[in-house]
Amino acid sequence: ESVILFLIIFFWTPPHFWALALFKAGDYAAAGIPMMPNVAGEASTRKQILAYSLLLAPVGVAPWLSGFASGVYGLASAALGAGFVWYAWKALAAPDAGMRNAKALFAYSIVYLFAIFAVLLGDSIAARALG
């Protein structure tokens, strides 16, 4: 169980911080901090964000697939993962929208992590209460 929770955080972290780095690239460059958009370029960063998001989606469902969460969690995590991939796709497919899509992905990533763990917690509490 702990390995799956670690993997959720592991695959969530890069798209979360790279989305932030996309719309704060100028600040990072001015401070001399080598974030991915400044080192590898925006296009490469957007592709990596999508790749990690595609890996995150099935990992997010893994607690249900491995049997330590219910189907309610499975459905919620699948929907949340699909949303994450959708925002990552928008950040890749429509870079001309300024940084609006990167900002939206960053905001959604915060909601995603909170929601997936809140649903997992609620699922665990419900399972214990129902015996």
Overview of the molecule:
The structure is a single chain. The model has no long low-confidence stretch (mean pLDDT 95). The protein contains six helices and no strands. The chain is elongated and about 55 Å long. The protein has one domain. By secondary structure, it is an all-alpha fold. It has helices at residues 2-23, 25-31, 36-39, 42-65, 71-93, 100-130. Pathway: Porphyrin-containing compound metabolism; heme O biosynthesis; heme O from protoheme: step 1/1. It is found in: Cell membrane. GO terms for molecular function: protoheme IX farnesyltransferase activity. It catalyses: heme b + (2E,6E)-farnesyl diphosphate + H2O = Fe(II)-heme o + diphosphate.
What is shown here, in short?
The protein is mostly helical. It contains six helices and no strands.
What labels describe this entry?
single chain, membrane, mainly alpha, UbiA_prenyltransferase, 131 residues, 85% helix, elongated
List the SSEs and their pairings.
Layout: H1 2-23, H2 25-31, H3 36-39, H4 42-65, H5 71-93, H6 100-130
Strand content: under 5%
Number of helices: 6
Strand and helix order: HHHHHH
Radius of gyration: 16 Å
The major sheet is characterized as: none
Taking the alpha carbons of the first and last residues, their distance comes to 20 Å
- How many β-strands, per DSSP? 0
Oligomer: single chain
Number of domains: 1
**Structural class, please?**
mainly alpha
Name the poorly predicted regions: none
What is the overall pLDDT average?
A: 95
Shape: elongated
Helix content: over 70%
Membrane topology: Multi-pass membrane protein
Keywords: Cell membrane, Membrane, Transferase, Transmembrane, Transmembrane helix
Catalytic activity: heme b + (2E,6E)-farnesyl diphosphate + H2O = Fe(II)-heme o + diphosphate
Enzyme class: transferase
